[in-house]
Amino acid sequence: MIQKMEGGNVRNDDESGDEQLSSLESMGSLWTFWRMRRYIVAVLAFLGFFTSYALRVNLSIAIVAMTEYRNFTLENGTVIRTRDFDWDTQLQGYILSSFFYGYITTQLLGGLLAAKYGGKRVFGVGIAVTAALTLVTPWIAQTSVYFLLAVRIIEGIFEGVTYPCIHAIWAKWAPPVERSRLATIAFSGSYVGTVVSMPLCSILASALGWQSIFYFFGTVGIIWCLLWMTLITDSPEDDPKITKKELSYIINSLEAKSNKKMKIPWCSFLTSMPVWAITVSHFCENWGFYTMLTQLPKFMKRVMNFDLNAAGFNSALPYLLMAIMTQFSGHFADWFIVKRILSVTQVRRIFNCSGFLAQTVFMMTATYWLTPAGATFCITMAVGLGAFAWAGFSINHLDIAPQYASILMGFGNTFATIPGIVSPIITGYLVTDETNVDEWRIVFYISSGLYLFGAVFYGSFVSGELQPWAKETEPLSTNKDNYGASKTEKEQSYYDNNSFVSDKYN
């Protein structure tokens, strides 16, 4: 018997089925999320992405301190200007981009390894190895810049598995009506990790020296890995602490999914314009994101003349806004679809293109409003409003081919990693004098142009409908939901019976 509120009074509904009872009780309250094991997975995945981005971005702050000139007094009283590492801007560009040389190689491999060995293990090992290498980075950097490049490449190889393999975890843990919410919780850790690590790296560098950045975050990564490997299982069936009701709820919600091994239609991927619309958008968004991620601390320090602490704090503001807006944009997008106000295609097009156009405007404005407040505001908006684009292209895989979503993510993220490699190198060649505003302006022009191109391309070729080549391997389909995806009668019944779960939080 389920108790429901109606007109302020409690009424009993004896006609509700056992399945709905199980799902309602297993939902519980978000204020007591620790009682629901799938939300424990989401929170620890959030901390995992938090850690992975902290390990990724720490060098962007550390390299400012490592190459900063300071006065040093010799024994004879002579004052000289020196720095720990005499790296020019071109070499710094290669160092900052080296992580992505490895990162690009394991996007597709990560999904395949997760399918074979389990998403938990691949995700955990990827971050654990990166954390261990981060701990020895100070010694490596002082030994040889070539060793440093090699270590960053290896770190990229192991972190490259994180995004693809997390889909293997959600495939077993996330009920369909909660998939967006759980995924949003996890992925937002990337931006929160950037927000926290940038100012914290600056504080550590100023107080304890740049070496402390790597020691601190490497230790945090090892601690997270121990928690993840101890508390999380690959599937709810393997979790000894999950309740029977929650286990039944998750299994029943995923029961209609086909476990049949399907042939991957690579030719269809490569000739599908909706797939390329997603891929191009991901590339364009990441160009601006990685440009700011690797170069913003230097821009704030050299051009805006912030001290190291202020540069780290102001560099984190765009990612703070993005972390906040990611939550809102995802819920707004789902609300428009659930309420049938807009079609899925319209929602993806509007959110993606409006985000790109806003980023174009603010990035261009930042090149001319070069006051500390003006530049900080424009760059914050230019990066932060990318959250709306993520509510477009990043979820679009599930619309056009849900059974291939993890593979499409790996495919698209392979191309979207190229900006992380190319952008810092190009910036290093364009900005030879780090205090020259005109040289930095070209960097911003490039990002603005790519945002605009991404809006036009995605707006022209986007689709929110299940693609013909994705329908061929669908199990017996009898009806369609408003996402355009076909369902069996049992799965349709599950969605109908549990529609209150979605409405409860939207």
Summarize it.
The chain has 506 residues and is mainly α. It contains 24 helices and 6 strands.
Question: What can you see in these coordinates?
Answer:
β1 and β2 form a beta hairpin. Helices cover about 70% and strands about 5% of the residues. With about 500 residues, it is mainly α.
Binned, the helix content reads over 70%
Q: How do the SSEs run, as a string of H and E?
A: EEHHEEHHHHHHHHHHHHHHHHHHHHEEHH
What is the average per-residue confidence, as pLDDT, rounded to a whole number?
78
Tell me the number of strands: 6
Strand content: under 5%
How is the biggest beta sheet arranged? 2 strands, antiparallel
Distance between the termini: 25 Å
Structural class: mainly alpha
For the CA atoms, what is the radius of gyration?
24 Å
Spans of at least 5 consecutive residues whose pLDDT stays below 50 are: 1-28, 255-259, 473-506
**Overall 3D geometry?**
globular
Strands across the major sheet, in which order? 1-2
Helix count? 24
